[in-house]
Amino acid sequence: GKVDPLIGLKENVIIGKPIPAGTGMRRYRDVVIDTSIADASAPQPGDEPEPYDDDDFIDDENYDDVEPEKEEELEGER
C-alpha cells in the first residue's frame, strides 16, 4: 500500500481546523538564502517615480470615450 505522511492533515483541513503551518522542518531551519543579488527591476534608493498626467486616469466623465482593447492586441502583449 501507499504511505500517507500527512496523517490527520487532510481531515483537519476538511473540518476547518487550523493546520500546523510554519512549524518548519529541521532540514530547512538552517538554510541560508543569498539576498545580496539586487533585483534590477526593484526601485533603488533615490529613484524618483515617473511623473503622471491627470489625463492618464479615467473618471466617470470620460469613461464612455474609452474604447475597449481588442483581444488580438492583448494577445500580442503576452
Per-chain topology:
Blueprint (H helix, E strand, L loop, with lengths): L8 H7 L10 H4 L41 H7 L1
Low-confidence runs of at least 5 consecutive residues: none
Helix content: 10-25%
Beta-strand percentage? Answer: under 5%
Order of helices and strands: HHH
**What does the average pLDDT come to?**
71
Q: Give the tally of β-strands.
A: 0
Radius of gyration: 25 Å
User: What is the count of DSSP helices, taking H or I runs of 4+ residues?
Assistant: 3
Structural class: mainly alpha
Query: Which term fits the overall shape?
Result: extended
Q: Biggest sheet: strands, sense, closure? A: none
For the record, give the distance between the C-alpha atoms at the N and C termini, rounded to a whole number. Answer: 45 Å
Walk me through what this model shows.
The protein is an all-alpha fold and 78 residues long. The chain has a domain at 1-36. Helix content is 23%, strand content 0%. It is extended, with a radius of gyration of 25 Å. The mean pLDDT is 71.
Structural key phrases:
single chain, 78 residues, mainly alpha, 3 helices, extended
